[in-house]
Amino acid sequence: MIPIIDPSDRARLDAILSRDATFSDEVDQAVASILLDVRKRGDAALQELSERFDGVRPDPIRVPVEELEAASDALDPELRQILKDAEANIRQFHARQVQNSWFTDDGDGVLLGQRVVAMDRVGLYVPGGTAFYPSSLLMNAIPAQEAGVEEIHLVSPPKEGGRPHPLVLATAHLLGLEHVYGVGGAQAVGALAYGTESVASVDKIVGPGNAYVAAAKKQVFGRVDIDSVAGPSEIGILADATADPEYVAADLLSQAEHDERASAILVTPHHDLAEAVQEHVERMVPSLPRKKTIETALASYGACIVTEDMEEAIDIMNELAVEHLEIITEDDWSIMTRIRHAGAIFLGPYSSEPVGDYFAGPNHVLPTGGTARYASALSVDDFIRKQSIISYTKERLAETGPSIATLADAEDLQGHAEAIRVRLRRFAEESGDSEPESMTVSVTQSVDAKNK
Protein backbone atom coordinates (compact mmCIF):
# COMPACT_ATOMS: atom_id res chain seq x y z
CA MET A 1 0.00 0.00 0.00
CA ILE A 2 2.85 2.38 0.87
CA PRO A 3 5.91 1.30 -1.11
CA ILE A 4 9.39 0.85 0.33
CA ILE A 5 11.98 2.38 -1.99
CA ASP A 6 15.58 3.54 -1.94
CA PRO A 7 16.89 6.99 -2.90
CA SER A 8 17.86 5.77 -6.37
CA ASP A 9 14.18 5.56 -7.31
CA ARG A 10 14.20 9.04 -8.82
CA ALA A 11 10.95 8.49 -10.67
CA ARG A 12 9.09 8.20 -7.38
CA LEU A 13 10.94 11.10 -5.80
CA ASP A 14 10.41 13.29 -8.84
CA ALA A 15 6.67 12.52 -8.77
CA ILE A 16 6.55 13.67 -5.16
CA LEU A 17 8.63 16.76 -5.87
CA SER A 18 6.44 17.69 -8.84
CA ARG A 19 3.39 18.27 -6.65
CA ASP A 20 2.63 21.96 -6.84
CA ALA A 21 -0.33 24.28 -7.03
CA THR A 22 -0.83 24.23 -10.80
CA PHE A 23 -4.24 24.08 -12.40
CA SER A 24 -5.65 22.74 -15.62
CA ASP A 25 -6.69 25.10 -18.38
CA GLU A 26 -10.26 24.05 -17.69
CA VAL A 27 -10.08 25.17 -14.05
CA ASP A 28 -8.32 28.44 -14.91
CA GLN A 29 -10.88 29.30 -17.59
CA ALA A 30 -13.84 28.43 -15.39
CA VAL A 31 -12.44 30.55 -12.56
CA ALA A 32 -11.77 33.50 -14.85
CA SER A 33 -15.39 33.39 -16.01
CA ILE A 34 -16.70 33.25 -12.44
CA LEU A 35 -14.54 36.17 -11.33
CA LEU A 36 -15.68 38.29 -14.26
CA ASP A 37 -19.31 37.50 -13.51
CA VAL A 38 -18.93 38.50 -9.84
CA ARG A 39 -17.11 41.68 -10.82
CA LYS A 40 -19.91 42.67 -13.20
CA ARG A 41 -23.05 41.55 -11.38
CA GLY A 42 -22.11 41.50 -7.70
CA ASP A 43 -24.62 39.92 -5.31
CA ALA A 44 -26.81 38.56 -8.11
CA ALA A 45 -23.87 36.54 -9.43
CA LEU A 46 -23.00 35.29 -5.94
CA GLN A 47 -26.52 34.01 -5.37
CA GLU A 48 -26.85 32.34 -8.76
CA LEU A 49 -23.40 30.74 -8.58
CA SER A 50 -24.08 29.48 -5.03
CA GLU A 51 -27.33 27.94 -6.20
CA ARG A 52 -25.53 26.27 -9.12
CA PHE A 53 -22.53 24.92 -7.21
CA ASP A 54 -23.79 24.53 -3.62
CA GLY A 55 -27.46 23.87 -4.22
CA VAL A 56 -28.62 26.72 -1.97
CA ARG A 57 -29.29 30.42 -2.47
CA PRO A 58 -27.92 32.56 0.39
CA ASP A 59 -30.39 35.33 1.19
CA PRO A 60 -29.18 37.51 2.74
CA ILE A 61 -25.58 36.81 1.84
CA ARG A 62 -24.30 38.28 5.09
CA VAL A 63 -25.15 36.20 8.14
CA PRO A 64 -27.02 38.24 10.77
CA VAL A 65 -25.15 38.66 14.05
CA GLU A 66 -28.10 37.09 15.88
CA GLU A 67 -27.49 33.83 13.99
CA LEU A 68 -23.82 33.87 14.98
CA GLU A 69 -24.88 34.24 18.61
CA ALA A 70 -27.41 31.43 18.29
CA ALA A 71 -24.81 29.08 16.80
CA SER A 72 -22.46 29.90 19.66
CA ASP A 73 -25.19 29.31 22.25
CA ALA A 74 -25.93 25.90 20.71
CA LEU A 75 -22.29 24.80 20.81
CA ASP A 76 -21.50 21.76 22.94
CA PRO A 77 -19.96 23.08 26.20
CA GLU A 78 -17.01 20.70 26.09
CA LEU A 79 -16.20 21.63 22.49
CA ARG A 80 -16.60 25.31 23.36
CA GLN A 81 -13.98 25.01 26.09
CA ILE A 82 -11.60 23.13 23.79
CA LEU A 83 -11.93 25.87 21.17
CA LYS A 84 -11.28 28.50 23.84
CA ASP A 85 -8.19 26.63 25.07
CA ALA A 86 -6.89 26.30 21.51
CA GLU A 87 -7.57 29.99 20.93
CA ALA A 88 -5.59 30.93 24.04
CA ASN A 89 -2.59 28.86 22.94
CA ILE A 90 -2.65 30.22 19.40
CA ARG A 91 -3.10 33.81 20.58
CA GLN A 92 -0.26 33.55 23.10
CA PHE A 93 2.12 32.23 20.43
CA HIS A 94 1.23 34.87 17.86
CA ALA A 95 1.34 37.72 20.38
CA ARG A 96 5.10 37.10 20.57
CA GLN A 97 5.37 37.89 16.85
CA VAL A 98 4.04 41.43 17.15
CA GLN A 99 6.58 44.02 16.00
CA ASN A 100 6.91 47.60 17.14
CA SER A 101 7.74 50.66 15.08
CA TRP A 102 11.26 51.97 15.68
CA PHE A 103 13.22 55.17 15.08
CA THR A 104 16.90 56.01 15.37
CA ASP A 105 18.72 59.32 15.74
CA ASP A 106 21.28 59.45 12.93
CA GLY A 107 22.85 62.71 14.07
CA ASP A 108 22.29 66.31 12.87
CA GLY A 109 18.67 65.96 13.96
CA VAL A 110 18.10 63.29 11.27
CA LEU A 111 15.59 60.60 12.20
CA LEU A 112 15.30 57.28 10.35
CA GLY A 113 12.88 54.53 11.18
CA GLN A 114 10.31 51.92 10.34
CA ARG A 115 6.61 52.26 11.07
CA VAL A 116 4.56 49.08 11.49
CA VAL A 117 0.95 49.48 10.33
CA ALA A 118 -1.74 46.81 10.24
CA MET A 119 -3.87 46.24 7.15
CA ASP A 120 -7.32 47.82 7.29
CA ARG A 121 -9.42 44.87 6.10
CA VAL A 122 -8.65 41.23 5.33
CA GLY A 123 -10.72 38.32 4.07
CA LEU A 124 -10.64 34.77 5.44
CA TYR A 125 -11.74 31.75 3.43
CA VAL A 126 -12.88 28.78 5.51
CA PRO A 127 -13.59 25.59 3.52
CA GLY A 128 -16.88 23.78 3.88
CA GLY A 129 -16.87 20.90 1.43
CA THR A 130 -16.40 17.37 2.75
CA ALA A 131 -15.18 18.67 6.13
CA PHE A 132 -15.44 21.76 8.30
CA TYR A 133 -12.42 23.52 9.70
CA PRO A 134 -12.90 25.71 12.78
CA SER A 135 -9.16 25.18 13.33
CA SER A 136 -8.43 27.00 10.05
CA LEU A 137 -10.60 29.89 11.21
CA LEU A 138 -8.62 30.13 14.45
CA MET A 139 -5.28 29.95 12.65
CA ASN A 140 -6.16 32.62 10.10
CA ALA A 141 -8.12 35.06 12.23
CA ILE A 142 -5.96 35.20 15.35
CA PRO A 143 -2.71 36.45 13.75
CA ALA A 144 -4.75 39.09 11.91
CA GLN A 145 -6.30 40.19 15.19
CA GLU A 146 -2.95 40.24 16.96
CA ALA A 147 -1.55 42.35 14.11
CA GLY A 148 -4.28 44.91 14.74
CA VAL A 149 -6.43 44.44 11.62
CA GLU A 150 -9.60 46.47 12.11
CA GLU A 151 -12.01 44.45 9.94
CA ILE A 152 -11.93 40.69 9.31
CA HIS A 153 -14.42 39.40 6.73
CA LEU A 154 -15.16 35.68 6.66
CA VAL A 155 -16.54 33.69 3.72
CA SER A 156 -17.51 30.02 3.85
CA PRO A 157 -19.69 27.85 1.58
CA PRO A 158 -23.41 27.87 2.40
CA LYS A 159 -25.12 24.73 3.62
CA GLU A 160 -28.74 24.10 4.48
CA GLY A 161 -30.56 27.40 4.89
CA GLY A 162 -27.90 29.27 2.94
CA ARG A 163 -25.56 29.56 5.91
CA PRO A 164 -22.06 28.23 6.57
CA HIS A 165 -21.70 25.24 8.88
CA PRO A 166 -22.89 26.02 12.44
CA LEU A 167 -19.46 25.19 13.87
CA VAL A 168 -17.90 27.86 11.64
CA LEU A 169 -20.54 30.36 12.74
CA ALA A 170 -20.01 29.51 16.41
CA THR A 171 -16.23 29.82 16.15
CA ALA A 172 -16.58 33.15 14.36
CA HIS A 173 -18.69 34.43 17.24
CA LEU A 174 -16.19 33.17 19.82
CA LEU A 175 -13.52 35.20 18.01
CA GLY A 176 -15.69 38.30 17.90
CA LEU A 177 -16.11 38.31 14.12
CA GLU A 178 -19.22 40.01 12.75
CA HIS A 179 -18.65 40.14 8.99
CA VAL A 180 -19.59 36.60 7.97
CA TYR A 181 -20.94 35.61 4.55
CA GLY A 182 -22.55 32.41 3.30
CA VAL A 183 -20.68 32.14 0.04
CA GLY A 184 -17.82 29.90 -1.05
CA GLY A 185 -15.79 28.81 -4.05
CA ALA A 186 -14.13 31.06 -6.61
CA GLN A 187 -17.11 33.41 -6.38
CA ALA A 188 -16.33 34.12 -2.72
CA VAL A 189 -12.74 35.01 -3.61
CA GLY A 190 -14.05 37.33 -6.32
CA ALA A 191 -16.39 39.01 -3.86
CA LEU A 192 -13.56 39.68 -1.42
CA ALA A 193 -11.29 40.96 -4.18
CA TYR A 194 -13.73 43.22 -6.02
CA GLY A 195 -16.50 43.83 -3.52
CA THR A 196 -20.26 43.49 -4.06
CA GLU A 197 -23.35 45.14 -2.61
CA SER A 198 -23.06 42.88 0.46
CA VAL A 199 -19.40 41.93 0.63
CA ALA A 200 -16.70 44.52 1.22
CA SER A 201 -13.49 44.40 -0.83
CA VAL A 202 -10.42 43.58 1.25
CA ASP A 203 -6.68 44.16 1.16
CA LYS A 204 -5.63 40.53 1.52
CA ILE A 205 -7.25 37.07 1.22
CA VAL A 206 -6.01 34.13 3.27
CA GLY A 207 -7.19 30.61 3.93
CA PRO A 208 -7.23 27.20 2.21
CA GLY A 209 -9.68 25.90 -0.36
CA ASN A 210 -10.11 23.54 -3.29
CA ALA A 211 -8.49 23.95 -6.70
CA TYR A 212 -11.05 26.56 -7.78
CA VAL A 213 -10.47 28.64 -4.67
CA ALA A 214 -6.69 28.40 -5.03
CA ALA A 215 -6.86 29.30 -8.73
CA ALA A 216 -9.10 32.27 -7.94
CA LYS A 217 -6.67 33.55 -5.32
CA LYS A 218 -3.88 33.27 -7.85
CA GLN A 219 -5.86 35.21 -10.46
CA VAL A 220 -6.84 38.08 -8.14
CA PHE A 221 -3.32 38.48 -6.76
CA GLY A 222 -2.19 42.00 -7.56
CA ARG A 223 -5.65 43.39 -7.05
CA VAL A 224 -5.27 42.12 -3.48
CA ASP A 225 -2.53 40.31 -1.61
CA ILE A 226 -2.87 36.59 -0.78
CA ASP A 227 -1.16 34.29 1.69
CA SER A 228 -0.11 31.66 -0.87
CA VAL A 229 -1.38 29.37 -3.59
CA ALA A 230 -1.47 26.25 -1.46
CA GLY A 231 -1.00 22.78 -2.84
CA PRO A 232 -1.99 19.43 -1.29
CA SER A 233 -0.91 18.66 2.28
CA GLU A 234 2.26 16.71 3.03
CA ILE A 235 4.15 15.11 5.88
CA GLY A 236 7.69 13.81 6.10
CA ILE A 237 8.93 11.75 9.02
CA LEU A 238 12.65 11.41 9.70
CA ALA A 239 13.11 8.44 12.01
CA ASP A 240 15.68 6.02 13.36
CA ALA A 241 15.37 2.64 15.10
CA THR A 242 14.07 4.27 18.29
CA ALA A 243 10.82 5.33 16.59
CA ASP A 244 7.59 3.48 17.34
CA PRO A 245 6.35 2.16 13.95
CA GLU A 246 2.70 2.41 15.01
CA TYR A 247 3.12 6.10 15.86
CA VAL A 248 4.87 6.71 12.56
CA ALA A 249 2.17 4.91 10.55
CA ALA A 250 -0.63 6.81 12.29
CA ASP A 251 1.05 10.15 11.64
CA LEU A 252 1.57 9.37 7.96
CA LEU A 253 -2.12 8.56 7.63
CA SER A 254 -3.12 11.77 9.41
CA GLN A 255 -2.04 13.71 6.32
CA ALA A 256 -2.83 11.16 3.63
CA GLU A 257 -6.52 11.45 4.53
CA HIS A 258 -6.60 15.12 3.49
CA ASP A 259 -6.47 14.73 -0.27
CA GLU A 260 -5.80 12.19 -3.02
CA ARG A 261 -2.71 14.23 -3.91
CA ALA A 262 -1.45 14.45 -0.33
CA SER A 263 2.04 13.14 0.29
CA ALA A 264 3.15 10.98 3.24
CA ILE A 265 6.81 9.98 3.40
CA LEU A 266 9.01 8.17 5.90
CA VAL A 267 12.77 8.56 5.48
CA THR A 268 14.91 6.25 7.60
CA PRO A 269 18.21 4.35 7.50
CA HIS A 270 16.47 1.32 9.01
CA HIS A 271 14.75 -1.18 6.71
CA ASP A 272 13.15 -3.00 9.63
CA LEU A 273 11.37 0.20 10.67
CA ALA A 274 10.10 0.78 7.13
CA GLU A 275 8.68 -2.76 6.97
CA ALA A 276 7.00 -2.40 10.36
CA VAL A 277 5.46 0.95 9.36
CA GLN A 278 4.22 -0.58 6.12
CA GLU A 279 2.51 -3.38 8.08
CA HIS A 280 0.83 -0.94 10.47
CA VAL A 281 -0.41 1.20 7.58
CA GLU A 282 -2.01 -1.83 5.92
CA ARG A 283 -3.68 -2.74 9.21
CA MET A 284 -4.97 0.77 9.99
CA VAL A 285 -6.27 1.99 6.65
CA PRO A 286 -9.33 -0.29 6.30
CA SER A 287 -10.86 1.10 9.50
CA LEU A 288 -10.55 4.77 8.52
CA PRO A 289 -13.55 6.61 7.00
CA ARG A 290 -11.39 8.23 4.31
CA LYS A 291 -9.96 4.90 3.19
CA LYS A 292 -10.24 5.54 -0.55
CA THR A 293 -8.60 8.95 -0.33
CA ILE A 294 -5.74 7.51 1.73
CA GLU A 295 -5.17 4.59 -0.60
CA THR A 296 -5.01 6.85 -3.64
CA ALA A 297 -2.63 9.28 -1.94
CA LEU A 298 -0.27 6.58 -0.70
CA ALA A 299 -0.24 4.78 -4.05
CA SER A 300 0.77 7.95 -5.89
CA TYR A 301 2.70 10.08 -3.41
CA GLY A 302 3.52 7.89 -0.42
CA ALA A 303 6.85 6.18 0.27
CA CYS A 304 9.08 4.67 2.90
CA ILE A 305 12.56 5.68 1.71
CA VAL A 306 15.38 3.60 3.15
CA THR A 307 18.76 5.35 3.06
CA GLU A 308 22.33 4.25 3.68
CA ASP A 309 22.64 6.39 6.80
CA MET A 310 21.14 9.36 8.64
CA GLU A 311 23.27 11.82 6.66
CA GLU A 312 21.61 10.74 3.44
CA ALA A 313 18.19 10.79 5.14
CA ILE A 314 18.70 14.42 6.20
CA ASP A 315 19.80 15.36 2.68
CA ILE A 316 16.62 13.85 1.22
CA MET A 317 14.43 15.67 3.71
CA ASN A 318 16.08 18.96 2.82
CA GLU A 319 15.45 18.22 -0.84
CA LEU A 320 11.77 17.44 -0.21
CA ALA A 321 11.22 20.61 1.89
CA VAL A 322 8.00 19.22 3.32
CA GLU A 323 5.14 21.15 4.88
CA HIS A 324 5.18 19.12 8.13
CA LEU A 325 8.39 17.43 9.28
CA GLU A 326 8.44 15.08 12.24
CA ILE A 327 11.81 14.05 13.68
CA ILE A 328 11.61 10.92 15.81
CA THR A 329 15.18 9.92 16.59
CA GLU A 330 17.55 9.42 19.48
CA ASP A 331 18.87 12.96 19.06
CA ASP A 332 15.99 15.09 17.72
CA TRP A 333 17.42 18.50 18.57
CA SER A 334 20.81 17.88 16.97
CA ILE A 335 19.21 16.65 13.76
CA MET A 336 16.76 19.58 13.76
CA THR A 337 19.66 22.04 13.52
CA ARG A 338 20.67 20.42 10.22
CA ILE A 339 17.24 20.82 8.62
CA ARG A 340 17.21 23.83 6.30
CA HIS A 341 13.87 23.42 4.56
CA ALA A 342 10.58 22.61 6.31
CA GLY A 343 7.34 24.43 7.02
CA ALA A 344 7.04 23.27 10.63
CA ILE A 345 9.15 20.82 12.64
CA PHE A 346 7.74 18.45 15.25
CA LEU A 347 10.28 16.94 17.63
CA GLY A 348 9.94 13.59 19.37
CA PRO A 349 7.32 10.83 19.56
CA TYR A 350 4.76 12.97 21.41
CA SER A 351 4.73 15.93 19.00
CA SER A 352 2.35 14.29 16.54
CA GLU A 353 1.42 16.55 13.61
CA PRO A 354 -2.21 17.05 14.78
CA VAL A 355 -0.83 18.70 17.94
CA GLY A 356 0.27 21.53 15.67
CA ASP A 357 -2.85 21.41 13.53
CA TYR A 358 -5.15 22.10 16.43
CA PHE A 359 -3.73 23.09 19.74
CA ALA A 360 -0.07 23.85 20.44
CA GLY A 361 -0.13 27.45 19.18
CA PRO A 362 2.14 27.75 16.12
CA ASN A 363 0.26 28.32 12.88
CA HIS A 364 -0.81 25.37 10.77
CA VAL A 365 -1.01 27.40 7.55
CA LEU A 366 2.30 26.27 6.07
CA PRO A 367 4.20 26.29 2.76
CA THR A 368 3.54 23.25 0.54
CA GLY A 369 4.94 21.78 -2.67
CA GLY A 370 8.57 22.49 -1.78
CA THR A 371 7.94 26.19 -1.18
CA ALA A 372 9.34 25.80 2.35
CA ARG A 373 12.65 26.55 0.59
CA TYR A 374 11.62 30.22 0.63
CA ALA A 375 8.27 30.60 2.40
CA SER A 376 7.19 30.57 6.05
CA ALA A 377 4.15 29.78 8.17
CA LEU A 378 1.31 32.30 8.28
CA SER A 379 2.06 34.85 10.98
CA VAL A 380 1.33 38.32 12.29
CA ASP A 381 3.82 39.57 9.68
CA ASP A 382 1.35 38.62 6.93
CA PHE A 383 -1.10 41.26 8.13
CA ILE A 384 1.16 44.27 8.54
CA ARG A 385 3.00 46.72 6.34
CA LYS A 386 6.35 48.27 7.16
CA GLN A 387 6.71 51.90 6.16
CA SER A 388 10.17 53.45 5.98
CA ILE A 389 10.43 56.85 7.66
CA ILE A 390 13.01 59.48 6.65
CA SER A 391 13.23 62.87 8.34
CA TYR A 392 16.26 64.75 6.92
CA THR A 393 17.50 68.13 8.10
CA LYS A 394 18.78 71.06 6.09
CA GLU A 395 22.28 70.42 7.42
CA ARG A 396 22.33 66.77 6.34
CA LEU A 397 20.97 67.56 2.88
CA ALA A 398 23.58 70.32 2.43
CA GLU A 399 26.25 67.75 3.28
CA THR A 400 25.01 64.82 1.20
CA GLY A 401 23.04 66.59 -1.55
CA PRO A 402 25.91 66.83 -4.05
CA SER A 403 26.50 63.06 -3.79
CA ILE A 404 22.80 62.33 -4.25
CA ALA A 405 22.60 64.56 -7.32
CA THR A 406 25.70 62.96 -8.82
CA LEU A 407 24.18 59.47 -8.41
CA ALA A 408 21.00 60.70 -10.09
CA ASP A 409 23.05 62.06 -13.00
CA ALA A 410 24.80 58.69 -13.31
CA GLU A 411 21.39 57.07 -13.78
CA ASP A 412 20.43 59.72 -16.36
CA LEU A 413 17.58 60.94 -14.16
CA GLN A 414 18.16 64.68 -14.26
CA GLY A 415 14.78 65.42 -12.72
CA HIS A 416 15.89 63.57 -9.61
CA ALA A 417 19.14 65.52 -9.55
CA GLU A 418 17.36 68.85 -10.01
CA ALA A 419 15.03 68.12 -7.09
CA ILE A 420 18.12 68.10 -4.88
CA ARG A 421 20.02 70.93 -6.60
CA VAL A 422 17.13 73.36 -6.39
CA ARG A 423 17.45 73.08 -2.62
CA LEU A 424 21.23 73.33 -2.66
CA ARG A 425 21.02 76.55 -4.70
CA ARG A 426 18.52 77.97 -2.21
CA PHE A 427 20.88 77.11 0.65
CA ALA A 428 23.70 78.93 -1.14
CA GLU A 429 21.53 81.98 -1.75
CA GLU A 430 20.46 82.12 1.87
CA SER A 431 24.03 81.90 3.11
CA GLY A 432 25.32 84.44 0.59
CA ASP A 433 27.91 81.98 -0.69
CA SER A 434 28.78 81.69 -4.36
CA GLU A 435 27.25 78.60 -5.88
CA PRO A 436 29.68 75.72 -6.37
CA GLU A 437 29.68 74.10 -9.78
CA SER A 438 28.00 70.97 -8.42
CA MET A 439 24.93 73.06 -7.55
CA THR A 440 24.57 74.86 -10.85
CA VAL A 441 24.69 72.07 -13.41
CA SER A 442 21.43 72.41 -15.31
CA VAL A 443 19.35 69.70 -16.92
CA THR A 444 20.23 71.15 -20.34
CA GLN A 445 23.95 71.07 -19.61
CA SER A 446 23.70 67.47 -18.44
CA VAL A 447 21.87 66.41 -21.57
CA ASP A 448 24.30 68.29 -23.81
CA ALA A 449 27.25 66.67 -22.08
CA LYS A 450 25.69 63.25 -22.56
CA ASN A 451 25.04 63.86 -26.26
CA LYS A 452 28.64 64.92 -26.82
Mean pLDDT: 92
Structural domains: how many: 3
Beta-strand segment tally: 14
CATH class of the largest domain: Alpha Beta
Under CATH, the homologous superfamily of the largest domain reads Nitrogenase molybdenum iron protein domain
Helical residues, percent: 40-55%
Kindly report how far apart the N and C termini lie. 76 Å
In CATH, the architecture of the largest domain is 3-Layer(aba) Sandwich
Major β-sheet annotation: 6 strands, parallel
Give me the secondary-structure category: alpha/beta
Low-confidence stretches at least 5 residues in length (pLDDT < 50)? 442-452
The total of helices stands at 19
Report the portion of residues in β strands.
15-25%
- What topology, given as strand order, has the largest sheet? 1-11-10-9-12-13
Rg for CA atoms: 28 Å
Binding site for NAD(+): 125, 187, 210
Binding site for Zn(2+): 255, 258, 357, 416
Biased composition (Polar residues): 437-452
Active site: 323 (proton acceptor), 324 (proton acceptor)
Please, could you describe this protein's structure?
The protein is an alpha/beta fold. The chain folds into three domains: 147 residues, Rossmann fold, CATH 3.40.50.1980; 183 residues, Nitrogenase molybdenum iron protein domain (Rossmann fold, 3-Layer(aba) Sandwich), CATH 3.40.50.1980; 59 residues, no CATH class. It is built from 19 helices and 14 strands. It has a six-stranded parallel beta sheet, sandwiched between helices. It has a five-stranded parallel beta sheet with strand order 6-5-4-7-8, sandwiched between helices. A three-stranded antiparallel beta sheet has the order 2-3-14, with no helix packed on it. It is globular, with a radius of gyration of 28 Å. The N and C termini lie far apart (76 Å). The C terminus is likely disordered. This is Histidinol dehydrogenase. Catalyzes the sequential NAD-dependent oxidations of L-histidinol to L-histidinaldehyde and then to L-histidine. It catalyses: L-histidinol + 2 NAD(+) + H2O = L-histidine + 2 NADH + 3 H(+).
